[in-house]
Amino acid sequence: MTALIACTNVIGHKNAHRLGVDLGMVTIDANCKFDRRGVLMEEEIAVPFPEITLTVLCDTRASQKELARVGEETAKYCAIAKLFKAAGTDLTVNWVKAG
What we know:
This protein is of the alpha+beta class. Helix content is 40%, strand content 26%.
């Protein structure tokens, strides 16, 4: 989860800069479902993290539309997010304007 949060943060800021969007202060929260049967060696699990939701909360003057655009671009380039998706994880990343 830490790698996913870090990748979202770094790639998100790079895309925001490229798009001319000031994200302001950013907080990223993660919520995930984890199928522990694999790590407990009860059975092999194809998708250990079936669902992950990130909430990227930005205290910014940017509009919600601008944040959504940053999110769309970040989804294209965040390598860790792509790995989770390719593994079959239902990954949702919500970019939200604080306040």
